[in-house]
Each structure stands twice: as structure tokens, then as C-alpha cells.
């Protein structure tokens, strides 16, 4: 039986639009959120590049935003708009392994919380559990080939109030982060709580209320650099 890919994905603009659901080569209408987030450019000369030269940033469109900032080398980033853990298991494990990083900073969950169904088209009753289970599988597949890699799990970042009103699924972010911290302990990974960044800085979101301005990425790397020393 061919896998039916039909996933409601968050890629940024907090407005549901029509998209395609692929099933055996045919396209059917589905709901998808599109990304129109813009990221301000920063200098190509980055002091962070040598710090993270043996690291990999692995995640969704929030991680992908690092590419625009040019704070790290593009080769150190594997990220896509709308990426969820279930799809990362199928599409990205080999890519990650090929880079042979010493450190992997993983950032998933924002899109997972919006998934109405799994990759077989079955409704998801508990998105937090579904995602954390897949997160665990993803980590284990990576560790099978890279047993000595250091894995760091980044907490799911908050969304703006307007986004929470339109997508109440995000009320589970705190619950998700609790489970993510438990997963990190079980997998002997580091859990990195990003909430202090947002407690001290209230205007980091881009216009869509999900993605971030350039300043966020500098603050992020400042926090993460202690994990690679």
C-alpha cells in the first residue's frame, strides 16, 4: 500500500491556504499554511562559523532561517519549510549521517503540533505524544550510525498571541517541551531551554508571529556555543 502523504504543516504565515496532497502520483486538495516570513541579512563574516564548524543544525523553517543570516556555513544546516519529525525520519537521516557532525542541534515540534493526521492519513489523537515518539525514533536512527555524536534538543519556541488565537494547538507548546526534556534525558541528549531568550527580549518575532528576526539567531548561537566547548 502506497503511503498517503497528507499533513497539515506550519510554514509560517498563519493563514490556511489550499495545497496538494500527493497519493500515488495524483494531487488532491489539502490544507497547508504557507510561509512568507522574511529574515534580515547579516554580515557574511561570522565569528560563529569556526565555533560551529563541526556542528549540524537540523530542523524546520525556523532553523532554515539561519541560512539567510549567514552566521554559519550552509553545509552545517539541514532544514526545510514544514518539516515534521515523521518526514525527517524518512527523508533526512542519511543526509545527517553523511555530514558526520560532532554535534547535532535538533529543532522540531512547531509543525508537528499542527498535524491533523499521520503519513498514512490516520487522525492523530495526541500530537504531542505522536511527535515525541517520532522524535525518539529519529534520534535512535541517527545514533545507530553516529553513536558518538552529541545531540542537543532545542525547546519549541513560543508563538505570538495572534497565532495562538488562530491555532490553539500551540497551547500545547509547554507540554511538548516538558516531554522533550524527558526525551533528552532518556536519550542521553542535552535539552536546551530557549525560554530565557524570550523572557528578556519581547520583540523577536517576524510579522507572521512564528518565525524570527535576525537578532534572534545571534542570541540563539550565543546560547548554544557553550554546548560545543
Automatic annotation (TrEMBL):
<feature type="domain" description="SGNH hydrolase-type esterase">
    <location>
        <begin position="57"/>
        <end position="218"/>
    </location>
</feature>
<dbReference type="InterPro" id="IPR036514">
    <property type="entry name" value="SGNH_hydro_sf"/>
</dbReference>
<dbReference type="Pfam" id="PF13472">
    <property type="entry name" value="Lipase_GDSL_2"/>
</dbReference>
<feature type="signal peptide">
    <location>
        <begin position="1"/>
        <end position="19"/>
    </location>
</feature>
<dbReference type="InterPro" id="IPR045136">
    <property type="entry name" value="Iah1-like"/>
</dbReference>
<protein>
    <recommendedName>
        <fullName>SGNH hydrolase-type esterase domain-containing protein</fullName>
    </recommendedName>
</protein>
<dbReference type="InterPro" id="IPR013830">
    <property type="entry name" value="SGNH_hydro"/>
</dbReference>
<keyword id="KW-0732">Signal</keyword>
Amino acid at each position: 500500500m502506497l503511503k498517503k502523504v497528507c499533513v497539515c504543516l506550519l510554514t509560517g504565515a498563519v493563514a490556511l491556504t489550499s495545497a496538494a496532497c500527493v497519493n500515488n502520483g495524483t494531487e488532491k486538495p489539502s490544507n497547508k499554511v504557507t510561509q512568507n516570513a522574511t529574515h534580515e541579512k547579516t554580515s557574511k563574516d561570522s565569528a560563529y562559523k569556526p565555533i560551529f564548524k563541526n556542528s549540524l543544525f537540523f530542523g524546520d523553517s525556523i532553523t532554515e532561517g539561519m541560512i539567510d543570516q549567514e552566521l554559519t556555513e550552509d553545509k552545517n544546516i539541514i532544514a526545510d519549510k514544514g518539516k515534521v519529525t515523521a518526514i525527517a525520519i524518512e527523508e533526512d537521516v542519511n543526509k545527517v549521517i553523511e555530514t558526520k557532525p560532532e554535534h547535532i542541534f535538533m529543532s522540531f515540534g512547531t509543525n508537528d503540533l499542527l498535524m491533523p493526521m499521520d503519513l498514512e492519513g490516520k487522525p492523530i489523537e495526541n500530537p504531542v505524544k505522536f511527535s515525541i515518539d517520532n522524535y525518539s525514533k529519529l534520534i535512535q536512527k541517527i545514533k545507530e550510525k553516529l553513536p558518538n555524536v552529541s545531540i542537543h534538543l532545542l525547546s519549541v519556541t513560543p508563538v505570538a498571541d495572534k497565532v495562538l488565537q488562530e491555532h490553539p494547538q500551540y497551547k500545547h507548546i509547554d507540554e511538548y517541551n516538558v516531554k522533550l526534556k524527558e526525551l533528552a534525558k532518556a536519550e542521553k541528549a542535552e535539552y536546551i531551554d530557549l525560554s530565557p531568550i524570550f523572557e528578556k527580549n519581547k520583540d523577536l518575532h517576524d510579522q507572521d508571529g512564528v518565525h524570527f528576526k535576525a537578532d534572534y539567531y545571534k542570541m540563539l548561537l550565543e546560547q548554544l556555543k557553550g554546548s560545543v566547548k
